[in-house]
Amino acid sequence: MAVATLSAENTIRQQLNQLHCAENSFALINGIVGRTRFFDAMQGKPGKHFSQSEADALLGVVQEMQELTAAVDPLVIAWEHTDRVRTALVLRRIKKIAAEIGDAELVGTAWNAARQAQNNL
């Protein structure tokens, strides 16, 4: 069954397509819902759509992926290297939190680690 045009599932699909990220890779990267849950919703199985909180969280991960893409432009991210991508996303989250709480040492450490992770993408 197809998902509705204005659904969160379709929005996620369109944004992943823009990133050139396969749904298979995102299912491993997202860290919000498991693989089976993800594909049940993406296939439009009745009663299996994402809850609003799941959709918001998944779209948040997609946004982080878009920000990561912009940060390494013009390089292209190999999304199929899901462990590396997850590491880069986590390190960018740490860097962001450190900056928000004003921990300069943690910001520097996170910045260096994020750069190293991005170089490995």
Distance between the termini: 35 Å
Largest sheet: none
Uncertain spans: none
CATH architecture of the largest domain: Orthogonal Bundle
pLDDT averaged residue by residue: 89
Oligomer: single chain
Total number of helices: 6
What fold name goes in the CATH topology slot of the largest domain?
Answer: 434 Repressor (Amino-terminal Domain)
Count all strands and give the number.
0
Relative strand content: under 5%
Classify the helix fraction into a percent range.
Answer: 55-70%
Topology (SSEs and partners):
Blueprint: H1 8-19, H2 23-29, H3 35-42, H4 52-72, H5 82-101, H6 104-119
Helix pairs in contact: 1-4, 2-5, 5-6
Explain what this protein looks like in three dimensions.
The chain is mostly helical. The chain has two domains: 1-73, 434 Repressor (Amino-terminal Domain), CATH 1.10.260; 81-121. 69% of the residues lie in helices and 0% in strands. The chain contains six helices and no strands. The longest helix has 21 residues, at 52-72.
Give a quick set of tags describing it.
434 Repressor (Amino-terminal Domain); 2 domains; 6 helices; 0% strand; elongated
Structure at a glance:
The chain is mostly helical and about 120 residues long. It has helices at about 10-20, 25-30, 35-40, 50-70, 80-100, 105-120.
